[in-house]
Amino acid sequence: MAGLAVFDPLGDQVGKVRDVVVTIRPGRAPDRAVGMVVEVPGRRRVFVPMTRVTSIDAGQVITTGLVNMRRFEQRPTETRVLGELLDRVVPLVDGTGDVTIVDVAIEMNAKREWYLAKAYVHRGHPSRLPGRLGRRGQAFVVGIEQLGDLGVVEQRQGAANLLAAIEEMKAPDLAEVINELAPKRRLEVASALDDEKLADVLEELPEEDQVEILTELGGERAADVLEAMQPDDAADLLSELPPEQAERLLALMDPGEAADVRRLLAYGDDTAGGLMTPEPVILSPEDTIAEALARVRRAELSPSLAAAVFVCRPPLEAPTGRYLGMAHIQRMLREPPHRAVGAVADKDVEPLHTSTGLPRVARHLATYNLVSVPVVDDVGRLVGAVTVDDVLDHLLPDHWREMDDDLGDDLGGLDGLGGLGDVTGEIPRAR
C-alpha cells in the first residue's frame, strides 16, 4: 500500500498512502488497523480513519471524501506499520525461534473492520540474514497470532524493509518520514542509508535532528556523509557542533572537501560568504557555449546552479582569477554552439562581496530576477555563488520544516473569512 494514490468518490486524488496505523492489543484480541497516514498536497501528513475507506485494491484507495486536514499526531496506543513494525524481530509463539517482519497484510472482517491478519517474515535477525532474502526455507508467511511480543519495542531493529518500502521517495519526503519517527528508530533508519542518500536527507532535516544523527554515526561515517553534502550545508551543520567535535570531523574529511568547508566557516552565517556554495560552474571567456552546456548537464548540479555559468580569468577554481561576468543558460541556448562564452556573458549584474548581508543578497536576487548571484573577495576573484534556495533556507523561520501549514497560516491570519477553521480541522478522528 505504500505510495498508493488515495481518491475521493468523484475520482479526484486526495493524496498518497505513507503508512498504516494499527493498535496492538494484549491477549487474543485482534490487532486493528484504525487508519492510514496520507500525504496530501503541501507534504502534510493527515490521518484518514479506516471507517472513511470504502475500497482498497492493488492500484488505489477510495475514501468517502471527508478528510480531517489537521496534521497527523500519533497516539501512545498506536503503532505505524512501516515506521515501527517492519524489520522488528519477534519470537514465534511455538518456540521455534525469532523472525524478522518483512511485511504484513490487513484484511476486513464481517463487521467491516480492518485488522492485522498475516505477516511475511524471515527467520533470524537482520544482522544475521543471508544476502538473498528469498532463500529457500528462510522466508514464509504466518498468521499474525503466531507472532509473540508484537507490542514490545525491539532493541535491535534494522531498517532494510522500511527503506525498501519508501525507496522511491525524494529526499525531502524521506526526511519528513524520518523526522516523524521515534528518536531510536530515526537513528536506525538514517544509519541504514548510503552516504549520498543520507547527505541529501540531512540537508532537509531540522538542525537538532542533523546534529543528533551526525553525532551518533561516529567519526569516520560522519566524515564520509559530510563529504557527500553540499559544502555550504556541511558548514552550516558543523557550525552547530561544539568546536572540538567539528574540528575532529574536519580532520577526518578529505583535505580538499574540508578546505571548502573551512573557507565557508570563516564567514558569518548571514553573509554572502556564509550562504554561498564554493563550487559553481566556472569557465574561461575562451570556452565555447557547447562546453558550457555540457558542464551544466551534470546530474549532480542543482537546477539553480545549472541556470548560469560564471566567466573568469584562470585559475578556474575558486578563488579564481578576475571575475568577468555570468552567462545565463537561456541566452546560451539561443547562440551557436561554437561561440565563445565570454561573448555572451552578462557584465551588468554586479557581484556581491563576501561580507554582504542576507537582506541585501535577497534584494539583489529579486531586483535582477536571478536564481544565482556571484560572490567575490576583496580583489575581485570569484569565490562562490549564492542561489535562491540558499537564501530561502535562511529567510524562513528556524523550524519551518516542522511548522503546521494550516489554511489559516497560508492566508496570513485573515480572521474575516469566517468558517474556514471548521473546514480545516473540526472533524474528529473517528475510530
Architecture overview:
By secondary structure, the chain is α+β, with helices and mostly antiparallel strands. The chain folds into four domains: 5-77, SH3 type barrels (Roll), CATH 2.30.30; 86-158; 170-266, MgtE N-terminal domain-like (MgtE N-terminal fold, Alpha Horseshoe); 282-394, CBS-domain, CATH 3.10.580.10. Helix content is 31%, strand content 22%. It contains 17 helices and 17 strands. Strands 1, 2, 3, 4, 5, 6 and 7 form a seven-stranded mixed β-sheet that branches. Strands 8-9-10-11 form a four-stranded antiparallel β-sheet, with no helix packed on it. A hairpin with a 5-residue loop joins strand 1 and strand 2 (13-23). The longest helix has 11 residues, at 207-217. It is elongated. The two termini are 20 Å apart. Residues 276-344, 345-403 form the CBS domain. This is Magnesium transporter MgtE N-terminal domain-containing protein. Keywords: CBS domain.
Shape: elongated
The total domain count is 4
Oligomer: single chain
Tally of individual helices:
17
N-end to C-end Cα span: 20 Å
Which structural category do the helix and sheet elements fall into?
Answer: alpha+beta
Mean pLDDT: 84
Indicate the CATH architecture of the largest domain.
Answer: Roll
CATH class group of the largest domain: Alpha Beta
Ranges where pLDDT stays below 50 over 5 or more residues in a row are: 128-136, 406-431
CATH homologous superfamily grouping of the largest domain: CBS-domain
Q: What fraction of residues sit in β-strands?
A: 15-25%
At the third CATH level, what is the topology name of the largest domain?
CBS-domain
User: How would you sum up the major sheet?
Assistant: 7 strands, mixed
Give the % helix: 25-40%
